[in-house]
Design a protein that fits this description.
Layout lengths: L17 H30 L3 H27 L19 H28 L3 H31 L3 H10 L16
């Protein structure tokens, strides 16, 4: 009788190890969860009449979905096995703008830690192809962290002046309907 052992080595036809494959699958779930969370935030801002913030988060949701798909495509190309995990539902209620943005910043910090952990794994395994792939995500996370941190600072300085916040978001390149998601038929 032949016994096949499951091990964490690079399998024939696979460029990445089983442990990297599992880490990437977990990250795919996190990226899809982030997309759902940002859609929830966008609808909260829409309900508050804050169309610039709403569009900003619809766009962020699209980006997070794109990140998940980039990981999916990488696994397919690397001969890995895509197993998208279930994701928890997003938070749907926010007491105020600041709490929503704080949640987004916390989320981006967590994703950054997760991607850094994946990079550590890639380095430990001398997985240079995954290191190259993850480098793009590390650079992307710097942009995401800076964006959310700046937005939170603006909100803290603006106080109750939500029009200032909307103006800030509008002046930083997010236009109504610019994301892949059309939110109103008026545009």
């Amino acid at each position: 009788m032949i016994v096949l052992q499951k091990h964490d080595m690079k399998n024939e036809g696979n460029i990445i190890s089983g442990s990297m494959n599992e880490a990437i699958n977990r990250q795919i779930g996190r990226e899809f969860a982030a997309s759902l969370q940002y859609i929830s935030m966008a609808t909260y801002f829409d309900g508050e009449g804050l169309t610039q913030l709403s569009d900003f988060f619809y766009r962020q949701a699209d980006e997070e979905r794109d990140h998940a798909m980039r990981f999916v495509k990488y696994l397919v190309d690397a001969g890995g096995h895509v197993a998208i995990p279930p994701v928890a539902g997003p938070q749907n209620e926010f007491p105020d703008i600041k709490s929503a943005i704080s949640l987004a910043l916390d989320w981006e910090r967590e994703v950054t830690r997760d991607i850094n952990d994946m990079m550590k794994l890639a380095v430990d395994e001398s997985d240079f192809i995954s290191q190259n792939q993850l480098s793009w995500f590390i650079n992307e996370q710097l942009e995401e962290l800076a964006s959310m941190d700046n937005l939170l600072k603006v909100i803290q300085h603006a106080g109750d002046n939500v029009l200032y916040i909307e103006d800030y978001v509008a002046s930083h390149g997010v236009k109504r309907g610019e994301s892949g998601t059309k939110v109103n038929s008026e545009n």
